[in-house]
Amino acid sequence: MANTKKLSMKQRYSALTRDLDWEPSYVSEDELFPHTKFEGIKIHDWSKWEDPFRLTIDAYCKYQAEKDKRLYAVLDGFAQSQGHLTLSDARYLNAMKLFLQGVTPLEYQAHRHFAYLARHLDGPGPRFAALCQSIDELRHAQTEIHTLSNYNKYYGGLHSWNKMHDRVWYLSVPKSFFDDAISAGPFEFLIAIGFSFEYLLTNLLFVPFMSGASFNGDLPSMTFGFSAQSDESRHMTLGLEAIKFVLEQDEGNVPIVQEWIDKWFWRGYRVTALVAGMLDYMLPRKVMSWKEAFELYFEEQMLGGLFKDLEFYGIRPPRHVEHAIAEKDVLSHQVYWTLYSFSFAAAFTTTVPEAGEQAWLAEQYPDTFNTLYKPRWDKAQEIVDGGGRFFFQGLPQLCQTCQIPMVFTEPGDPTTICQRHSVYKNERFDFCSDGCKWIFDREPEKYVQAWMPVHQIYQGNCGGPSVPEVLAWYGIQDGDNGEYAGSLDHLDWQRWHASEPAAASTTKGS
């Protein structure tokens, strides 16, 4: 060890990672690493893997421990000072409920599957990189849970989040994405997560949305978001290195990788639909519209940057990318209206956008909001003013691939619902878009097995035939859902923010 201390960082990294590798003697290499052959990817020299970050375990743990100290200092100070009362509005927490239920379980699944890659990739370089990302993803899940657990003391809908992730209808969208990824081979998983999840989804989530958390007074969420984003930068670099490594190893890998990029772009893009609704509608104080975020982080950075680099290897922009661009003026409005229409079966509350929020939406979406969506919200407000609340009567048809209700419109025609279908083994399957249909047609045997929430409810597999029975099976308690103005969170928020005399009288009467 005395000599090890005199080595350079690059030498220490090599000694503690690659130099620990060995040639198998009593089993063949194919027996030791059986999972990297069946996808058709050819790797001729694993030593050509270039590590973007040469961190040893000791340096990595020291670096992450320092970040955790800063994060938990913020969490402790926020909790002790009753920081939840300084939020912009209790409505903000509806977005964080969706985050906890939909995103945090994905971090844990990523942790488990990168641990799998750390065992089953042939080369020591990518194995060690996968190990570091596995630890990162576990840390992200833990810090997100710890951060949001403080709000669980005061507000509903933050309990049973992992159970809800496995059962609740709107959470089948992110869940199906990861179920798809972890049931793929190791190289496809690297493309799915390193490209789609890291470059597309988390970039749009952890940067603009966490800025929104700060703007709405949620210092802990902003802190864990930016703490995680420094890791995400490393993960994006790892994803790009994985793509380049595979492409450089054999020309025959190029068409395989291209199809994976086509597939996982659209799968990831459909999951970002939830982020679109959160950014435009679920933050009381707006920081950036979905359209702005999409143009900056996808059109400029990915299409104008990443794919310019990959063009050298023969990779073109993803299939159906023009349809995603065509949806940027309508996506968030269609998604949030769906959440509003079905929030009687959700663990968060939804509201008609206030006048100031609608003015902001009209400014951000001058070509679509006032003409297409404001009349809908005006009608919903009339119902609320009359003492009612609009809910969709019935269950929606779901897309077989992304599992989102059929709410999206034809590219270029926001007044016509887009619906495609395929027939497989004499059974019809419906899709929300050309992208989802194309994905299904490539691998129909995989997607016919999808666990579709609406189908399962009709088959009696979700607690019973009535809404109360389904909600009990979901783990949603009375008061978690419904109109915000009548929710327990809203009543508590009003009581806590009342003047001292009023607060005292309210407490006596409760």
TrEMBL record:
Residues annotated as domain YHS: 409-451
Catalysis: reaction(s): propane + NADH + O2 + H(+) = propan-2-ol + NAD(+) + H2O
UniProt keyword Nucleotide-binding present: no
A UniProt-annotated Pfam family: YHS
Keyword tags: Monooxygenase, Oxidoreductase
Oxidoreductase recorded as keyword: yes
UniProt name for this protein: propane 2-monooxygenase
Species in which this protein is naturally found: Streptomyces thermocarboxydovorans
